[in-house]
Write a structure and sequence with these properties.
Number of domains: 2
DNA-binding region: 39-58
Helix content: over 70%
GO molecular function: DNA-binding transcription factor activity; transcription cis-regulatory region binding
Number of helices: 9
Mean pLDDT: 88
Radius of gyration: 20 Å
Protein name: DNA-binding transcriptional regulator, AcrR family
Distance between the termini: 89 Å
Largest sheet: none
Shape: elongated
Pfam family, one: TetR_N
Number of strands: 0
Keywords: DNA-binding
Length: 197
């Protein structure tokens, strides 16, 4: 007499693999249902794990949002670093790398990242984290562009504001990816050229 087929035993994931799985499920949840639907309990349900597993990784919803932002920033940073290394050392190429990389990273994450950023902004601790990552990005932009002119902090902040607004407009379909990249490129070139005067 044969026994009915039993399901294969579940393989226990390493902590790193479990974190990656939970982040991927969280991004999908935000994509499908929005940031407001993102709770630790809902994430556990969708990931097929118990709540203590999710709480062990993130502790709070704020911790989960922080981890999502860090995940996004790590990908954005790697794309940026790779593109800068592959570019030629001209103002136009460096400015293009910044413009194209920023827009592409936001579009890669789609409409989810604005919701995560908005949720991050609602907490002073999380706003501080966002500002720290922005400062690191702005320092990298300054390093990439400073051989071509004086790069002011207000100019960098204006560039970042334009990058966020244009990327979000492209993510929502208001403008095209190419329009966002070209407008951001023009903004960066104008900022650098003002520093040459």
């Amino acid at each position: 007499m044969s026994s009915p087929a039993s399901p294969a035993p579940r393989r226990r994931l390493s902590r790193e693999d479990r974190l990656r799985q939970l982040l991927d499920v969280a991004w999908q949840l935000v994509r499908d249902e929005g940031t407001d639907a993102l709770t630790l309990g809902r994430l556990a349900e969708l990931a097929g794990v118990t709540k203590p597993v999710v709480y062990d990784h993130f502790v709070t919803r704020a911790g989960l949002l922080t981890a999502l932002y860090e995940d996004f920033d790590a990908r954005q940073n790697q794309v940026f670093v790779d593109a800068i290394e592959a570019s030629s050392a001209t103002l136009e190429d460096r400015a293009w790398v910044i413009a194209a990389s920023y827009v592409d990273c936001v579009l890669l994450q789609g409409r989810e990242i604005p919701g995560v950023i908005a949720a991050l902004s609602s907490s002073p601790e999380l706003e501080t984290l966002k500002r720290q990552y922005e400062a690191i990005f702005l320092d990298k932009c300054r390093d990439a562009l400073s051989p071509f002119g004086r790069i002011s902090q207000p100019g960098l902040r204006a560039m970042l504001g334009a990058a966020e607004a244009l990327s979000q407009a492209a993510a929502s379909g208001e403008i095209s990816r190419e329009e966002a990249q070209q407008e951001l490129l023009a903004t960066i070139l104008a900022m650098v050229n003002r520093g040459r005067v």
